[in-house]
Amino acid sequence: ASAQFQLAVPVAVVFAPGSVPGDLPRPLPFRDVQEMEISVNLRTSITSRYETVYRSTTAQEEAALDVATAREADAALHLLQDASLGALTVYVVPETSSHLPQGISVYVGKHRSALVRAGGGLATLRTRLQQLTQVMSFTASSIAAALSDRVPDGQLGPDTRRHLKSSLGYEITFSLLNPDPKSHAVDWDIEDAVNRYVQPVLDKLSLVANFSVDSQILYYAVLGVTPRFDKESSSFLLSAHSLPHVINPVEARLGSSAASLYPVLNFLLYVPERSHSPLYIQDKDGAPVSTNAFHSPRWGGIMVYNVETPASPQASLPLHVDVDMVRVMEVFLAQLRLLFGLSREELPPEFLLESPGNEGLADWELDRLLWAHTVENIATVSTTLTSLAQLLDKIGNIVIKDDVASEVYRAATSAQSAMAKLAVGHLHSAFQASKEAVTSSERAFFDPSLLHLLYFPDDQKFAIYIPLFLPMAVPILLSLAKIVREARQRKKEPTKMD
Fold first, then answer.
1. What are phi and psi of 303, to 5 degrees?
2. What is the pLDDT of residues 368-378, one digit of tens each?
3. Which of 333, 298, 1, 6 is nearest to 167 (CA)?
4. Taking CA 357 as the corner, what is the angle to CA 351 and CA 358, rounded to the nearest 5 degrees?
5. pTM for the full predicted model
6. What does the radius of gyration of the chain's CA atoms come to, in whole angstroms?
7. How many Cβ atoms from other residues are within 10 Å of residue 237's Cβ?
8. Which residues fall within 8 angstroms of residue 309, CB to CB, at 6 or more apart?
9. From start to end of 136-197, where are the E strands?
10. Degrees (nearest 5) of the Cα angle 452, 458, 462?
11. Which residues pair with 228 in a beta bridge?
12. Are 189 and 325 in contact (CB under 8 A)?
């Protein structure tokens, strides 16, 4: 199915006193529109449209900028900004401003604004604006990753297909694997850790999808791969090429995805048995991984948690182990960001990105996720409805009920509405419409009345009924032929007269 997307990004460029370039094309305020084409394939094209408004600061914004640091300015300006999703505000401060540290020209806050140091004229400013919009909204690679099913093989990098597919919901399972409970009595306060570290992130992501969280402890669950003992370090090692073989044996014990309607994200904390302690993970170059963890795309992550060996060999077993949940959750949250494609790309050295803090992701990172998921949802609806149309063409006698037809109509209308909202820069309403379109299209496609096994092509009907009726039809046809012959013979014989 063909699709032409138009993505409009509202951008406001606000000049503080003393930062207006001398080569502006016309007096402030004024508007400027720039478009860029993103080619996906022959039938899918994307036009990104940056609608920029150039203006001066208001009195309130000048007061908000009258602080010591860029972080304080970002927090103060956040209260004055346009709260709509997808909109960006760039504040241009004088070249001598003390907000930005020495050597830093661009500061990206944790909301939807950035500070840019003036200098170099309008051409330099536009270059930095282009870099900023690529960071804070979407890039050609992020949109191509969302449309990975439509991009020809070989045109995508190895990381673009690793992100989670867009879904209406996700289930997160935290599992503690204790293969040696006779030696280790492991205690982890997972409920408090989820409430303190994970829930703020999920609250921020609740706009994207619904999340459910559960936890479990599995005893006598081993990795399924025998680690190699290293004499030099007196430790056991798991090499990078053996890591893919770790997941399947462990996944058989999890049992979390068997009855799940949504994708399941598994985060496993593995406490190695005493006979294989300490256990370390190596990267492809043979160096130890600093986090002692690894993640599997679209599946989850595993962290190995080593227990300190007691000083006295006569220590009573099992050893009581209190898991450091801060260290564990730092790793799991980093893996969660990678699964959603929120890894921060390499930036120029003059860029400074503010840490998102306890929320786990910045507002503009949420926008990046919504841009990608909205486009992916619309493409999914297009593919689903196209497949449904092909099914109807293939099976001519299929019956479409009124409720199925209404779902198809609702899906098509919502998808068109989402594309129209994207074209005018209304990201939030576009994403909501795309979710409604996905829901309706899947209801229609998976309706029980459209199960293709209920309908048979004519050749299959002949193949089924001929073996049944042919043995019955042969004696009947022979009897009919005999009756016809006898009738003809009676007509030919002369009538006897007495």
1. -125, 135
2. 999 999 999 99
3. 298
4. 160
5. 0.84
6. 33
7. 17
8. 277, 278
9. 169-178, 184-187
10. 120
11. 237
12. yes
